[in-house]
Each structure stands twice: as C-alpha cells, then as structure tokens.
Amino acid sequence: MKNCDVLIIGAGAAGLMAAYKLSAAGRRVMVLEARERLGGRINTFQNQLFFKEAEQGAEFIHGDLPVTLGLLQTAGIQTEPASGEMWRFANGRFTEEATPDWGLLMDRLNLLQEDCSIEAFLQREFGGYEHEALRNAVKRFVAGYDSADTGNASAFALRREWQNEDDDAQHRVKGGYSTMINFLTDECRARAGEIFLNSAVTDIYHESGKVKVTTAAGEIYYAHNLIIAMPLGVLKATSGEGAITFHPSLPKYQEAFKQIGFGAIIKLLLEFNKPFWEGDDVAALVGKDPREMSFLLSDEAIPTWWTQNPRRTLVLTGWLGGPPAIAKQHASDEEMLELALQSLANIFRKGVEELREKLVAFNCANWTADPYTQGSYAYDMVPSASARKILSEPVDNTIYFAGEYLYDGPAMGTVEAALTSGQEAAQKIIGN
C-alpha cells in the first residue's frame, strides 16, 4: 500500500502538468502510468529504430499557444518553424486548386441556427450531385485534421474552428515534444513526486475525501484526491485492457464521456536513404522547387503526408484519420507499410520496389488500436458542451478529470489543451 495527497492516473501532458503544479504547491503526488514509458500520446524517437528524431505522436505547436510556449520558455526549450507549401495531388497531377464552393459553405454555415452533425448539414444544404466534390473535400478535411466522423462532428464546432483559422505560423519543439515531458517529470521528482510505470489501473473506490486505487498487478494506492488524466477513448471503454471500473459507479459522468467525440488516427513514419521527393523528376512533375513542400494532400489510401521542412531530413510522415483509420485499426504493420509505399509510388510515379529498396526505417503508430489510448484526440459532437460542464465538476470534491477533451477553445485536441486542463485540475485542488 502507498499513500499520498494527490494520486494522478496517466503520465501524459495533462497528468504530468498537474503533477508539476501540485508538487510545486507542496502536495505529495504520485503518478500511475500504464505504459512502460512516459508521455502518453507524446513520444519522440531519439536515435531509436534508426530514427534520429521523429515524433510518433503529437508534433506541432499550432500558432501562439500561451500555456505550451510559457512552459517551454520556463524549461529553456526552444522551438523551430514548421514552414513550407501545401500541395495537392488529385487525378494524377499536382494542383493548387482550392476546395470548391468553400465560401458558399461558410455562408450557409453562418446562417445555421440549430446545431446538427456536419454530415446532416451537408446533405441538407449541399446534397446534389453538383456538390459532390465539396462534400468529399469536407469529409477528407474533417477526417484528416479533426480525426473525426462527419456523421458525429458538430457543425457549430467546425464552424467555430473554420472561422478562427488564421495564418499563425506552426512550430515544432526543438529536440522533440519529449523534452517537455522530461522537464515536467524531472521537476515533479525533484519535489519528491513519485511516478510508477507499468501500473495499469483497473478499479477506483471512492468516497468524499478518500480514494483507493488498485492496479492490474494488485498494487493498492490511497489518496485524498484523484486526478484521472487518461485519454477519453479509455474512459469510454467498458471492458477489456485499459478499462477501469468505478466503485460506486458514476453514471452521469460515464454518460458524459459518450457525448464527446474521440477520433481515430494511424501515423506512419518512413525514413529513406535519400529524399527522393526532392529530385529533379519531381520538380518536373510539380513545376516548382519540391524542397518547398511541407504538406501533401491526396486521395490515396494514405492521403496525407508531410516533411520536416524547413529542416532537410530523410523522413516522410503519413497520416490516416477518421473513419478510414477505424477501418484499418486491426491492420498489421506490414499491411500499413504496403499501403504507404503504394500511395507514395502513385503520387511520385515511382515503383513500389524502388521505394522499398530506399527505405531505412518504418514505424506504425496505430493509436486507435493502442489499449491505453483507443483513439486519437477529442472533437465536439452536438451534446459535447453540456458533457464538458459535467466532467469539469469534481466528484465529491475528490475525483477530478483532466485531458485535452475538456478544453473549450480553438486549440481542442492539442497538447495546449492537455496542458491547460492539467493545470486547471491542479489549481482546483490547490484552491480547495
């Protein structure tokens, strides 16, 4: 048996941010992490699997995000720009064509008075054959960027997201996001905080001012307060590896979990012996300098790709999100590699075997099949705002929830959202 003031389940960005703030405030903190590593959906490969530096999970800082940038500044960690051009490959050629009728889409979205799924909105307002290209473009975007299903995603939430799109530059964390995780971990441990890996929680027993937590290995932990910083996909699970059981049950909270969307993602890392996408033959296909490519969108089986521009590296990152990722969640790594190579071969007019011979390293991060994630990140459904209000209130001032799914703002689903939520949970406990 182990005792502490505050027990935290989950050593991702939200959980470690909470531990960092609580330990700084003098609370005795323990963190339980089911995996054998820290970081949750953050994991930087540093000289692993032949990758010198590559992000298996979260990668970008999307604009001017105060909590993320403030933490990095405190830690003395620098950022670097993620610049370059966005290309589109469709119908066998590279193009810069914009999404058809996007202005009309936004005009009609702005007139929408009652929320519904974006799929229902599209069918009602743009259901004809003449708008097929627009419907497909929206589905690709929602699946790729929001990792969401258009049949569930809130039209109001997407309207807010698209209205708030700006030209803020994207950045990466120099050295990878895991440098931030390492800083939070070191600071917590420096203040006597304890972190236990390979500690998958199975049961939570609770009453006002007291919790008892048991793990799959039979370990028992007691605390006055508990922060649950597990991914929403795990909290939605009712059985199987990763699922937890509350004693007594929390039906109001468990119903609220179901009312927030949680997407699906498969992320692929491919390192080659040379950047074939920067060759003269590609320049001839595109008609401009291929070294300026940052993002590449297509209709291939693996539709989205990006480089490490402006850094010249040998890594291409592939991205499959939303319903197509759910459809492939049980696919083997070998099957995903074949899809990746075939997609690149089709785009760049190469042979699959030619690309295979150039391949140095490959990794498939199937976050949807991972039992301790069970998806990608949150998105809003129609009832999500009400659900967040429920989940933002502690259970008997004893159990608190933290995670990117609780963030209500334009940076939903990001590291910024996770850090903000963890910070807020810690502040509530300190305030009480």
Q: Can you describe this structure?
A:
By secondary structure, this protein is an alpha/beta fold. The chain has 15 helices and 22 strands. Strands 1, 2, 10, 11, 12, 13, 14 and 22 form an 8-stranded mixed beta sheet that branches. α1 (13-24) packs parallel to α7 (178-190), α1 packs parallel to α15 and α9 (251-258) runs antiparallel to α14 (384-391). It is globular, with a radius of gyration of 22 Å. 42% of the residues are buried.
What's the quick description here?
The protein has 432 residues and is of the alpha/beta class. Helices cover 34% and strands 25% of the residues. The protein contains 15 helices and 22 strands.
Looking at how many chains there are and whether they match, the oligomeric state comes to single chain
Number of helix segments?
A: 15
Query: What's the story with the biggest beta sheet?
Result: 8 strands, mixed
Helical proportion, percent range:
25-40%
Q: Between the first and last Cα atoms, what is the distance in angstroms?
A: 26 Å
Rounded mean pLDDT is 95
Approximately how much beta-strand content do the residues carry? 25-35%
**Shape from CA axes?**
globular
* Beta-strand segment tally: 22
Task: Provide the structure class.
Answer: alpha/beta
The poorly predicted ranges are none
Rg, rounded, reads: 22 Å
